[in-house]
Amino acid sequence: MTLVSVIIPTYDRHSFVEGAIETALAQTHDEIEVVIVCDPPVEETRAVLEQYDDDDRVRPFYNDERLGIAASRNLAIERAHGEYVCILDDDDRWDPRKVEKQLAVMEANSDCGVVYTGGLVRQNDRTVGTYTPSIRGDIYPEILAQFDLKPYSSHMIRADCFETVGDYDTNFDCGEDWDHAIRIAREYEYEYVDEPLVVRHFHDSNVSAAAAIERTDRLQLELDGTADIFGQIWSKYREEIDRHPEIERQLRYDRHLSWGWTEIERDNRRRALRYGWEATKNRPSPTSLAICCFAVLGTSALGLVRSVRDTITHTQFDRVNDHRLAK
After folding, report:
1. Is the peptide bond before 133 cis (omega within 30 degrees of 0)?
2. How far apart, in whole angstroms, are the C-alpha atoms of residue 200 and residue 182?
3. Could you tell me if 36 and 76 are in contact, meaning their C-beta atoms sit under 8 angstroms apart?
4. What are phi and psi of 2, to 5 degrees?
5. Domain ranges (residues) in the chain
6. Which of 175, 197, 255, 310 could form a disulfide with 229 if both were Cys (CB 3.0 to 4.6 A apart)?
7. Which of 17-21, 103-107, 228-232, 306-310 has the lowest mean pLDDT?
8. Strand, coil or helix: 39
């Protein structure tokens, strides 16, 4: 049977990592190994992982210093033995059939490098959004403009991909997943399983605070110094982007959107308006115009709109869940 390696980087989040290990071991596909790489501090995390000392499927490793998520993933991949690698963040959870369903798709297509799935977004114990997969096959160069292959914890990657395109770029503090996906897309096709097989949990300690309820919120990044992922992609792939004017326009649009939302959160209305207008010039849209409007109206109006939207969203999901339970 095919061995699948599940790699879990973690940092000082002992309350999450046990759930990640259990969701991997609970897969209907039996041949699973779980490789965990822990950035320090690790005392409480080590205590959790010691519960698995007698389970050969679980192999923890401990960094001597904090290396970050990209370097930790690279170390996990070096130690993985599987024919396929599954990405799993320590706070995300899987449907038990996830790996089995992905293997069926992967092994039916020798040109496929990655199979991803749909997912749910949960916050404060409520389902607040969904990821619906929509792109497959040859997705280069379109992936240069936008990383729309989420949740990343759904990705099953052929191990050969890492030999072909290399490891994660440790120059990226955030967005290393997008960068790596670009390199895979140059060489391989993408496929998906159109089912919500992953649950993402949003909370204060997420590395990326992208709110994934809808496109506008997915582009709103936390004010933590990592807001210009678009700029990092642009810098690394400048020559390739320059060869595709439509890609360049889309990237300019998305970059100005992210800056615009950031400045609205900072209540810097003048700069938010400027970025909203720049986004509108590249691609007029309801989202770019919304930035301009909220730049004028301020954060209180944005908060009111979000409150109404969240209430509607929660009500819709509650109705769906009630309907399922009734069945």
Report:
1. no
2. 22
3. yes
4. -70, 130
5. 4-208, 216-304
6. 175
7. 306-310
8. strand
